[in-house]
Amino acid sequence: MKTKKIEDITKKIVKGGSISFLGHIAGKGIKFILEVILTRTLGASVYGLYALGNNFMEIVRGFSNFGFHFSIVRFGSVYRGEGDQESLKGTFLFSILFSFTASIIISILIYFFSDIIAINIFKKPGLLVVIRMLSFALPFYAFLLMASYSARVFRKMDYAVNLEFVIHPLLTLIVVSIFFAIGLKLKGVLFAFFTSSVISALFGFYLLIKLYPDLISKLNPKFHLKKIFVYSSTVFLSGFSSLLLLSRADRIMLGIMDSSKNVGIYNVGVLTAHQMSVFLYSLNAIFSPIIADLFSKGKTEKLRELFQTVTRWVFTFSFPVFLNFMLFAKDIIGLFGSEFRVGGNALIILSAGILVNVSVGAVGFMLNMTGKERFELINVLIFGTVNIVLNLILIPRLSYLGAAISTAISLAMLNISRLLGVYRFFKMQPYNKNFLKPFFSGLITYIIIYIFKTSINIKGFWWLALVLLFLLLYLFFLILMGIEENDFIIITALKNKIRIQKNSNYFKK
């Protein structure tokens, strides 16, 4: 009976995770194409201005949400599980309206202080138009994010993932291509981001009402303001501190202390390195509400087994990406243009830090979704401060390589601390003997491809053939070492899910 229940939840994760995975892959592919077009059209210096402005606005977006997107998932999942429709509606209404209102106010403030930000702080006059244009898109992008997280409460990952990771970047790519065709370059990119944000937000509103009609019904909402505020403020401090001190500090500090060209080179390395995280984010998106649900019901044994299974899946998919970055860093970065190839070493350093992140699994969500958000906040503040100090020391000496080293070290230390925290509070850890199978499969494959690569002279794009050979050998060794029972469940579920679904049209009733 226990095995059957675990199998049912596993299939649920695979169902949502496969949608999330495919959506993330599609979105990453679209964004990758978009970034290649931007870098090759704008060049490193102008692209660096756009990247710096966008990273600054990411921090502002994080501030405007105030952690309410996590509150929707945390409390929405619980109220939905309990059948408390009034509290569910109150959580949705308050969280969405507060975030949207705050983003409008912050957008106005950013616009009026944009000259101080661009000229006095970053000392880059060309950044002024970037910040002003991106500030117009802030309220629409904030609503888009809230709509995406709302869909996760109902585990409708096709709504959540496609809205945030496919529709918005695809619209941006299409509109950018049109503006580039008529001669607009940097302004074309900025107009495109604004246009796609507006259209995506409107579409998000439509999907949200379709998914949850009670949002605009006469059902009386019940508001738990204190509970939501306490949780949101704590998670916000943790998430925003992580965004400010860890995720974006490197590029912001590099922008203050170095040229826009080096910001552009480094930003390409960061975006490429984060391709490794697609598997972690995909499964976390569906795993996070399940964590809250299982923990609230006291089903810790199920949670423990799923924690280990999901972590192994994430590592199995992510480890070969890291090893290919090690082998072909400069070739991969070179896709963005010849002037970006110098960022190959930054890619390797950053991907090493991200490897630690994917290797420990959903430890951050385990803490946030089980009432340990204060511990997570302390973690982020400590290691975020470490990151700032390291950047202050290393960027003046090593430029973007200093930023890469600082970020990798801080990210690794943060996730190790999270891992220790999960074990301390719940006596759970994400590893078992099966974790060694992808590790040794990847290590053996790496040695074979490395020897082959150093023995022949590879020219042009023939390195892509070695990437394909790597993946085939890796798969071969995985199968050779044996497939687990849960893996058969995954394979069967993925086979069924990846098929074209005729009934997946959003516009059907």
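Second entry:
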Amino acid sequence: MEPLDSKLNEVVVVGYGAQKKVDLTGAVSSISGDDMIKRPVVNTTTMLEGLAPGVAVVQGSGEPGNENASVLIRGVGTFSGVGTGPLVLVDDVPGNLNDVNPLDIENISVLKDASSAAIYGSRAANGVILVTTKKGKAGKLKVEYDGNVGFDTYTKMFQVVTNSVQYMNMYNTARINSGLTDTTQLYTPTEINAYATHPNDPMYPNTNWLPYLFRTGVTQTHNLTFSGGNDRTTYNINFGYVDENGIMRGFDYQKYNFRANLQSKVNDHITFGTNILLKSGITDATENGSEDMFLSTLSQAPTYGPYTSDGSGHYAYKTYPFEYNNKNPIAVLNDGLYHDTKDYEADVQGWLNVSFNKDFSWYTKAAFNGEFDTYKTWVQDLPEYYYNTDQLGTNLDLGQGLTEQDEHTIYSNVYSYLKYNHSFGSHTILAQAGWSIEQNEYQYLQAYRQNYVDPNLQEINAGSTDHITNQGTSNNWALESWFGRVDYNYKERYLIESNIRFDGSSKFAPSNKWGTFPSASAGWRVTEEPFVKALNLSWLDNLKFRGSWGQVGNQNTNLYPYQALLNFTGNYSFDNQNLTTGVAQTQLNNPQLQWETTTMTDIGADITLVKNFGVTFDWYNRVTSNILRQSQITAVVGLQAPIVNDGTVDNKGIELGLTYGNSVKSGAFNGLSYHFGLNLDHNTNKLVKYGAPDIYSYTINEQGYPIGSFYMLKVAGIFQNAAEVSSSPKQYGDNTQPGDLKYVDANGDGKIDDNDKVIIPGVVPKLNYSFTANVNWKGFDLSVLMQGVYGVKYFVNNWGTIPFVQGAPPTTNWLNAWSPTNPSTTMPRLYWGFNAPQSLTRPSTFFLQDGSYLRVKNLVFGYTIPSSVTKHIGIDRLRVYFSGDNLFTFTKYPGLDPERAASGDFLTYPQNKIYSFGVNVSF
């Protein structure tokens, strides 16, 4: 394995250029494409997980084509709603990381501080991710095939009460406890006894509905790459295909992608090239999405199955008229109620580089990106029948009809810069100056018709014109920029860099259109000092201190917030005969609106010891001011509040990266090489300036606390008897009963009300961490990625937490619910769904769960067959491997997945546990 100190001369991609790693003065993490593709997963963004300190990746869902993966760099910097995701650039042009085939990636650089990101100005407030795709290399044609087949299941599933007798008794108890005592709405002893005495009779089932929705999914990925060239022209061409059948029936995804990177030398001074991406995706889903399917499945009683008991094939409604439920999910799946998406993308880049001499060059790139999406949704009525009589129970009206939608986005970008890099004596100077312009146009059109004589003819024109709607809109924005950089290097010892960018955005009034974003950084390589070299410290190979300061911006607000916009407000009659269309200004405008600005300070150190042990440390302070937000004004104004610049958020944090690599050069394990890495980061978040507190359902934005802090009642336990209830502070005037939650009188006034709500810590994790291990020996390779979060909490309620929401069976922990004969101290009395009294449903710490976890995120074991064997069949390299994703999770979180729990709902599409087998072949 290559010693770590030799990697200091590796080239790292930075904004509009590249630098040697040893010369970096900013906080930049570099990830190789080879490290990313060790996880053979479909979503490219998730491959970043755990590979760089300060970079938090959350996969919000396991739904094919809709994984909702997000990246957060150094915490949440703004509460404005303009977005917290980083700017992603693919070959220096804004793009979508998920549109990049992982096998096309040469490397990724994450720019975390303002000095490294400021050259991108107003787009860089949340950090920058630079993706560099692979280029061809001169030499003979090289053909590579990578194939993988994975078998997917959920990481965890709800354990619900599926025994009908238990369900019926709990059902009755919950309704009676909630004051719903009408005996015609309860299971009778005779009905309960019928299920108890006929355990194997299909008329009296104990149905677990979840296996009807979930299955083992199968995912295939195939990639074919051609690369090579000569001393004039090189090429790298990839064809990729993904076929993902989701673990939830009705949700599938297919993707085709093509990338061609070509470059050619006209002569020793002129080089030009093109990068082309073509992508097509097809996403199959149901009409209301995966969460609706999940809750519909949970909201079914075990007393009946998906089909009526007589074998007619009719979809079951329920067994008894008083039972509560949602629509039959199997009817939705089988009768083709769908929401399908087709997306097409073309990304074409052309570039030209002119080297006037060895020091002076000119680079220009023009890029075009077109995204074209179509959506088609079909809904029809569904008849459902009573399970035990096969009589029509209901004809579900789910909003029948056909909706078709087309939308497209056209983005163009042109940038050009001059670069001068000259060394004289012990000095090296780099100067760079450039200009860019970006334009974006969006258009959307939708049509709907309701009634169809023939449901098999699903075209807009085949529907009746009795119920017809249409709508559409378009918008555009533009950004013009000037940027520059100056670097100075003295003897690889003293390093100085400065950047500046001027951005002009169409989103602001002409008087405030331009923003200036400067940065400066410096580095000191202590180990290059003569006095350090004189000490002959053989154990200290590299010690570099660095510091930076800079400002970046954010312009991601509404498109026209400074203009007085008129909106359609309805049709009016002024003569009681004719209708006149009305328009009016509905939101106040603000012509004084300016840029949201983030100022960042970073102090760091890079250390290499005994050629094998590396340490990277960073402390940062990130302050976002002039936040773009809706003004806090009274509703008596009559119009929506304008967008203003108001508010300040402070993020502080530390990041630590440790690496160790070595190899065995003798003995039984001669040739064994290994590499270990540990990443840790801690972030704190605080609203420094906000205004009046904003209180939401269970969170609050208040000055002095983190954004979206939990705000709720604290639970002290469960009332065990009437005496305890009477001796405690009265709760909101409720008719509190033994078995109810006992709230803390936080302000000590002798009663429980909203004044006892308190801010609860836990919205920001105390620690993010990951561990990687890579071992290679005699053709065998093993890699492990473990990733986790400590000290975070999530608020979860509704389906999956409160029993009998729309009749949903309780989770099995409610079998321990408090009752006079079971005085539980962990689970309160059973109540009936949304009819439960507020003594249970008020936001409280009862619903606040510990989301800390440690997960074996990925394990790969592979074997490369010796070339002495494969060369006889014309194969240069043949590797086979097994990969496991999300194999084990250690957590106290009671929901399905702590990683995606921030959504606040148990019912998001589960994340996948994947067992896959693959092969890498090169010719």
